């Protein structure tokens, strides 16, 4: 698509600067609407929906589907930011506001799943962008994706921070009777001011606890990714305990905890944020994430991660998670319908990776 062929629909927001013209493959049009101030949607006709995870990756699945690229949730620490540079966009504000939408993703996916060569391996959603960010309310791509996966016999997982998933709970319940389905909710910060600063586009903890409760009440397991735990900001024993208490009370099935990763592409934004908000912590982070030759490394020091693992396990024990017999990533049969087929279903869906 040459730039001059790009069609721009500016919806009644004349104060906005010109919509950036971006050379995207399959671009149909770029749109702005008053409900999403400052955001541009680039609607594309995708040629593929299933993405194969590179063999070198340590992710516990081989396939992903990302109906959008870029994320309105705008988490400062998001290491999917780097993927926007592959589109010739920047990994900061463009990632937060230039959202690429694969408007035909469900149709393309259905065709790919119908191929005789498709092996019905686990497909993960929510690894590179949040599938229930607010944009999903406008485009409604997830219902078609869920149905296509379930009808093809493909197990899948969804990881989100978005209460919009509640809209699709009836569909997910149906899908969970056909294939293993894993639903994960990301929640690691209880303090509203800190959460709004670090994850400015996300629903607050209360809304996400409501989502966890709704999933549990629908008869599905809900696995909470308490990630990232932010050193010196959310790793106090009091915060970890309060977080696990609230999650247990909301009906979470399991909690996975992990320290912040500082990958290139996210690290720069995180350190910039830290310098502005908590400059006294900058030397501590440099020490905790010190790499070779004075640079950074992605992971916090091993002794810190070991300490956090122990604290998280103790918190899970205190709040009853370790006693639960259900596997954390396994879909649960609907108790209202008695013993269901899923109780005999072999484990097929691995836990979600530590993206959030
Ligand atoms: S961490 Fe997840 S929710 Fe946050 S911006 Fe990245 S993709 Fe979106």
Account of the 3D structure:
- The chain is α/β, with parallel strands linked by helices.
- It is built from 11 helices and 12 strands.
- The strands form 2 sheets. A 7-stranded mixed beta sheet has the order 4-5-8-9-10-11-12. A 5-stranded mixed beta sheet has the order 1-2-3-7-6.
- Helix 4 runs parallel beside helix 5 and helix 8 crosses helix 11 (302-318).
- The two termini are 33 Å apart.
- The model is unreliable at 1-7, 10-17 and 325-356 (pLDDT under 50).
- It binds iron/sulfur cluster.
Which keywords apply here?
356 residues, binds iron/sulfur cluster, disordered C terminus, disordered N terminus, seven-stranded mixed sheet
SSE blueprint:
Elements: E1 8-10, E2 27-32, E3 40-44, E4 50-52, E5 63-65, E6 68-69, H1 93-97, E7 98-102, H2 105-113, E8 123-125, H3 135-139, H4 142-151, E9 156-160, H5 169-176, E10 181-186, H6 192-198, H7 205-217, E11 222-229, H8 237-250, E12 254-259, H9 267-277, H10 282-288, H11 302-318
Parallel strand pairs: 1-2, 3-7, 5-8, 8-9, 9-10, 10-11, 11-12
Antiparallel strand pairs: 2-3, 4-5, 6-7
Helix pairs in contact: 2-4, 4-5, 8-11
Bound molecules: iron/sulfur cluster.
